[in-house]
Amino acid sequence: MLCACNFNCDINYCTSKFGCFTQIVLKSDQKRYSILYGCTSNLIQSIQCGLDNFKDQFKCCKSGDFCNLNFTNEYLQAPKLPRDTTIQFWNINYFLIILSCLFSILISGLALYFCKKIRQIRRESHIKDQLKNFRHRIQHEINEPKIVVETIQSYTSSGNGPSELIQRTISRDIHIDYDSGPLGKGRFGVVWKAKWNHDDIAVKVFFSMNEPSWTRETQIYQTNLIRHENILGYITSDIMGLGCTVNMIILTDYHPLGSLYDYLQKNTLNKSQLLKFLFSISNGLTHLHQEIFSTSYKPSIIHRDLKTKNILVKQNLECCIADFGLAIRFNHNHIENDYELSLRQGSVRYMAPECLNESLDLRSVESLKKTDIYSFSLVIWEVISRLKIDGFINDEHRPPFYEMVSGDPQIDVMRDIVCVKGLRPKSKIENLIKDQDLIQVVELMRECWSNNPAERLSALYLKKKFKKFIQ
């Protein structure tokens, strides 16, 4: 049964099978009494009930739950029991459960925070290691260093002193303009506008898995005597950490007019602009293909991915050739050993017939030059298609073979069109041209896209012809 309890109890009631008791105890002043309630825990206590000694008297009962509350005393007040003891018990449990949940959440949050902090520290350490390894490898793979060397004159008391070389990576000094969006995207990376020493430059950021392409393009740009007015101006190469990754970068001159492809999208051309574009492209291509023997040797360079998206328009409306990620060098008519060649490299739409049908002789520098000439013929077609003629409304700029294929065509489809059927791009404007110089340009274009590589013209010949037209 349940009994009222006010001593040796965690709560104000207890249970017993022997009954309940009320004990009256005289206090030390001999004038007041205190009353104790509890459970009869054994048979001996139940025998004490009924003794007549009022000083230490037990009153026992078994008549029902809390029967020991029936005794009252004017000096003392019986303990107040809750109406529903079950509710109080469950409230305490709920409180403990909520407290446990909050404690668990706190511990979990702290654990996640420390785990994230540890992972961040490890990631930063890993990036630093990668940067260190990349820079070590660069010094062995590239002939020229890819770090900016600043010469600072340190003066002695006499005013003359030795030059002191201070090295630092250029990636720390550039500020990429991410807000304006990328200038262009390719298979190997993304090109951004950036600031360096308060000047506008272009930064080509290579994806981490395309290190061979970055190495190859850097080697091409660092070739002896490569600098030319119609080759994109090269500044330097470096590596930099972007977020959680390590990327390779190439810094070049910035040309706000963008690529020739972008320019043709927005503009039509008159005869003078058209010839200026074609002459500057052929001039740059001639310099690439030419092998120069002098105090410094320059090998022949084959671009292998010539198209309007890889040609930039300068402020003076001349063009310069860019993007050498697939280019190769020939030293004394022998290809460099570190290149892994494939018959099918470059954009499929601009790929020469001998590349599509895999008949190209990779050991012949002249054969490889003719693949660039074929691609150049399609660039000529794109430029001519934007020629402005009185009484004729130009269609919007479209890539070669747009009426036959769309998007990024498959090799098998292009081989069927170019090699099997022998088709070439068509333009409505070709039949409307009356100017004799431009008629000859169309004839040169058709010679350059011949199925037979031997019938195609050289870059030097084209350069001389276009220069004659301009004069």
Automatic annotation (TrEMBL):
A Pfam entry, by short name: PK_Tyr_Ser-Thr
GO molecular function: ATP binding; metal ion binding; transmembrane receptor protein serine/threonine kinase activity
Membrane topology: Single-pass type I membrane protein
Cited SMART domains: S_TKc
Occurrences of domain Protein kinase (ranges): 177-470
Cofactor entry: Mg(2+); Mn(2+)
Principal localisation: membrane
Any one cellular-component term (Gene Ontology): plasma membrane
The protein, known as: Serine/threonine-protein kinase receptor
Organism: Brachionus calyciflorus
